Amino acid sequence: MRIGVAAVIAVFWSLPAAVQASDCTAAYARASDHYSSFIRSPAQKKYHERWESLAGEFEAVAEKYPDCHKADDALYMAGKLRFDCYAFSKNPNDLEAALGPFQALIAQYPDSTLADDAQFLRGRCFELMGDYDRGRIEYQRAIQRYRRGDMVRQAQAQLARLPQGSAPPAPKPAPVAPSPSPAAPSAPVSPAPAVSSPGASPAQILTIRYWSSQDYTRVVVDLDREVEFLPPHLLKPDPNLGAPPRLYVDFPGTVLSQEFREQTPLRDGFYDLPIGDGLLEKARAGQHDQDAARVVLDLKSISDFHCFPLPGEDGGFRVVMDISGQKTAPARSPATQPSASASPATTAPAPGPRPTAKKREPAPAPAKAGKAPTRSVIVIDPGHGGKDPGAIGPGRTREKDVTLALAKKLKARLEKENPELKVVLTRSDDRYLSLVERTARANTLDADLFISIHCNASPNREAAGIETYYLDNTTDRAALKLAARENFVSEDKQTKADSITNLILADLQTTTKVNDSVPLAGLVQESLVRELKKEYSNVHDLGVKKAPFWVLTGARMPCVLVETSFISNRREEKRLVSSSFQDDLARAMARGIREYLNEHPELAAAWGE
Ligand SMILES: [Zn+2]
Q1: Cβ–Cβ contacts within 10 Å for residue 522, how many?
Q2: Residue partners of 334: CB distance under 8 A and separation at least 6
Q3: How far apart are CA 68 and CA 308, in angstroms?
């Protein structure tokens, strides 16, 4: 993304323009609200005309207010919605419909930070339509016109994968779900096989990992790059076949990597990963057909599931499947449940590509409702670690070192203040942990609170202050930029962060305890500002904010991410490395947590005053 001129223009708005701009901003905000509720509703997304009408709403904003600073965003959304709709409809008409708004954005707002994204997505549209020559031209433009843009690397990668010539024209499927009369419920979009790209090398499934606890299992499919996968299917048990309930996901244009096949036993045409935790019998993966891999979960019990994609930290891609249910009597044969089995917090992370079979001793215990009320579990997550240093200050201070020191101090303080608390760190040394694993640890521990600790950074060295985040959509560009950095995605994925995370969050609102996280964020933030102001000057309160942090995504408990200070600011960097400031930060955070727990006696043992 490049620095746009929209912000500069804003300074020179004349009054009538400002009035118009506020109308425009309101219209754009309305469309964004509609988008937010639409994208959170799996039922709505099945209907073609809902996609279309939302795209039309954004398009209308751009048409009515061409001089508004949101006009380029509106055109981008109009194109992106049609592009995303294609993932459901597989109807090339949707791709064709996306081309117009993208082109209008490029032509009318050449300085928009989204122009290169639009150019790139035009390439994707043509590529998916099988017109590789046009796709090539669009990718080349994305590279040449926007040399400093963040889509250059992706465009280069797509160009390298693009086969020569064009694919035989794909047969157009019959028009999908013609718009029904308002009274009649419309027919769902039926997913059809994806347009395959002959000649392009298929994506690969590298590993399948899982983390498991009493009533929850997280399965993560790791891929070498982003793929479009089909929505998961839940199959009822089939007594005739003796088949358990199953959940499966198909990955068009994907194969199982050689390494995966070599390391995983093959049974009945599927590579098997036994789980046997009482909730899942096993996960298995197979080549469903030549062009598509299928991952199947054989279930014992299921009450709820969520399936969402997350870009991997190293340019790879993940699909996360979170399963909740009531465990049936778990198999407790000594062979499968070694007594030495560690708790998940101390189990080594799954290094390397080897499929892992991480087990937690599933001692049959009452469900959460019957959990002993005296022992609350708090998981503290020191951001970054290992190969990911996080932000680096002007004095070469590494964020990962500060967050670890802070997390240790916070744990010690919480445990000292209240011995009834069990405080677990996601990492207690300098090691790399993926974001999905951090959340999985909190979920498998059935933690009551999850606190991720970070240091802020900005190219503006003057930027300073403390802010606390909870997980939600946002249109705040600064928050999105920060989220992209904390999500450890490369710069060229930054712009994409808002569209991808919107889709991710769509599925998660029911499990992510946003409502409980907001007051937690408020109390921690207030306490930090109040306590630190007593000791230090220049403590800036940047407030409670929301952003799509992937480390909070799918957490089943109230969770917040604290940006303790700016490591990029010399004064604050100096503070962050000092042990006394770290003590003060830990004390203030502990106080905020304590206030929250005291307001939730169902969580906390009485806190000794
Ligand atoms: Zn960070």
Answers
A1: 18
A2: none
A3: 34
Kindly give the distance from the C-alpha atom of residue 540 to the centroid of ligand 1, in angstroms, as a whole number. 19
pLDDT tens, residue by residue, 8-65 = 222 222 334 444 668 888 888 888 888 877 876 767 877 888 898 999 999 899 988 8
Residue that the structure tokens 């209308």 belong to: 60
Compute, in angstroms, the gap from residue 414 CA to the centroid of ligand 1.
22
pLDDT (tens digit per residue) in 99-119: 989 988 888 888 887 888 888
What percent of the chain lies above the pLDDT cut of 70? 76
Residue 547: phi and psi, rounded to 5, are -165, 160
Residue 524, CB-side half-sphere exposure with 13 Å CA sphere: 32
What is the rounded average pLDDT for all residues in the chain?
78
Q: Where are the alpha helices (DSSP H) in 339-420?
A: 399-417
| Distance from Cα 549 to the centre of ligand 1, integer Å | 10
Are 298 and 285 a contacting pair, CB within 8 Å? no
Structure tokens at 196: 């395959």
* d(CA 548, ligand 1 centre) in Å: 13
- Beta strand pairing call for 449-456 and 377-382: parallel
- Ligand 1: distance of its center to the CA of 405 in Å? 14
For ligand 1, the distance from its centroid to the CA atom of residue 486, given in whole angstroms, is: 5
Q: How far is the CA of 578 from the centre of ligand 1 (A)?
A: 18
Tokens of 561: 């991410």
List the one residue out of 147, 84, 165, 89 whose CA is nearest residue 121.
Answer: 84
Domains of the chain: 6-161 (1.25.40.10), 201-328+353-360 (2.60.40.3500), 370-609 (3.40.630.40)
CB contact burial 246-268 (16+ within 10 A = b; e otherwise): bbbbbbbbbbbbeebeeebeeee
* Distance from residue 384's CA to the centre of ligand 1 (Å): 6
581 or 182, greater pLDDT = 581
Give CA angle at 460 (458, 464), nearest 5°.
70
User: Torsion-angle region of residue 487: left (phi > 0), alpha (psi -120 to 50) or beta?
Assistant: alpha
**Residue 365 is which amino acid?**
A
Q: Which of 74-83, 89-98, 321-330, 340-349 has the lowest mean pLDDT?
A: 340-349
